[in-house]
Design goal:
The chain is of the alpha/beta class and about 300 residues long. The chain has two domains: about 5-190, 3-Layer(aba) Sandwich (Rossmann fold), CATH 3.40.50; about 200-300, Formyl transferase, C-terminal domain (Methionyl-tRNA Fmet Formyltransferase, Chain A, domain 2, Roll). About 25% of the residues lie in helices and about 30% in strands. The protein has nine helices and 15 strands. The protein has helices spanning about 15-25, 45-50, 60-65, 85-90, 110-115, 150-170, 170-175, 210-220, 290-295, and strands at about 5-10, 30-35, 55, 70-75, 95-100, 105, 120-130, 140-145, 190, 225-230, 235-245, 255-260, 265, 270-280, 285. The strands form three sheets. The protein has a seven-stranded mixed β-sheet, with helices on one face. The protein is elongated. The termini are far apart.
């Protein structure tokens, strides 16, 4: 340990950056600057830092940061590449909190892929920032369980909590000038771009278990979820569950109503998937789903 806290710059956006800032400030870290972006979602972070007399920048510019003599950088969901000049400026290194297991899930949409792949656990990884994205030595990790009904949205919340816990549990992140990490196994490395399979459109020829995972992985209350096109209507599937019932031949993508058990079913490549909640014409339908479908859009139902 050094005899004083390192002069630390926070690079980050959204709620996680505000949580990290609050945690570090309360722990007595020497925060010399916050680098964020000009967006309404970062206004609270900007205000929190400004009220405490901490410099706020909207770009990671070495010329602006140099007078502050930063020693450590900590990164929380910062969406821009941090240049080599800034990495060199922070003499004790820059470390990123990545909400996924490395090197398996480098890149974007890190909460989607573990659910799609049926993983039982997800991981928050702290690694050194180097020129290649998410490729630096790993210094700390923390795992969280992926529940049977986990969504990408709920998993994101878990991983953000894990990031703050990691930060609080390891004060050496802002106090120790040298951190020892483990190199990543490049034979396992995968990089994912900011693009969903099929652009978020459901492929009903896939097995039901794959489609059900896709629905959960893509779910977010504020953005478009997994969707399908039915008779020129766009239908978002917000929640579904496995029926464990075989689909009739040629049923992939076809809609069925089981009126006896009040179930809406859609055929997949092997089984029928039970649909619990949808968004249609900007309205969310969950209760009395079968009745609403047969009343308002009966032409969608396959007889």
């Amino acid at each position: 340990m050094t005899d004083k806290n390192l002069r630390t710059v926070i690079f980050g956006v959204k709620g996680i950056a505000l949580q990290a800032f609050t945690c570090l400030f309360n722990e007595g870290a020497d925060i010399v600057a916050v680098v964020t972006t000009e967006s309404p979602e970062n206004a609270r972070l900007h205000d929190a830092a400004s009220r405490k007399g901490i410099s706020v920048f909207h770009d990671a510019c070495a010329d602006a940061l140099a007078p502050l003599q930063p020693e450590r950088g900590l990164v929380f969901s910062y969406p821009r590449r941090i240049g080599d000049d800034v990495l060199e400026l922070c003499t004790g290194g820059v470390y990123n909190f990545h909400p996924a297991r490395l090197p398996d899930y480098r890149g974007c949409l890190p909460t989607v892929w573990p659910i799609l792949n049926g993983d039982e656990q997800a991981e928050c990884t702290v690694h050194r920032v180097v020129r290649d994205f998410d490729a630096g030595d790993v210094v700390y990790t923390r795992s969280v369980a992926i529940d049977r009904r986990e969504t990408g949205y709920s998993l994101y919340g878990k991983l953000m909590d894990a990031e703050v816990t990691l930060l609080a549990d390891h004060p050496q992140l802002w106090r120790q000038s040298r951190l020892t990490g483990e190199p990543q196994d490049e034979s396992r490395a995968q990089y994912f771009r900011n693009r969903l399979p099929g652009g978020g459109r459901i492929d009903w020829t896939q097995p039901a278990v794959t489609v059900e995972r896709f629905v959960r992985a893509v779910y977010h209350p504020d953005f478009r979820c997994a969707y399908t096109e039915c008779e020129e209507l766009t239908v978002e599937i917000l929640d579904a569950e496995l029926s464990r019932e075989l689909a009739p031949a040629g049923a992939a993508g076809k809609v069925f109503c089981d009126t006896a058990r009040q179930r809406l079913l859609i055929g997949c490549g092997d089984e029928l998937l039970s649909i619990r909640r949808i968004r249609l014409k900007d309205q969310i339908w969950d209760e009395d789903l079968v009745s609403k479908i047969t009343q308002h859009v009966p032409h969608l139902v396959h007889s």
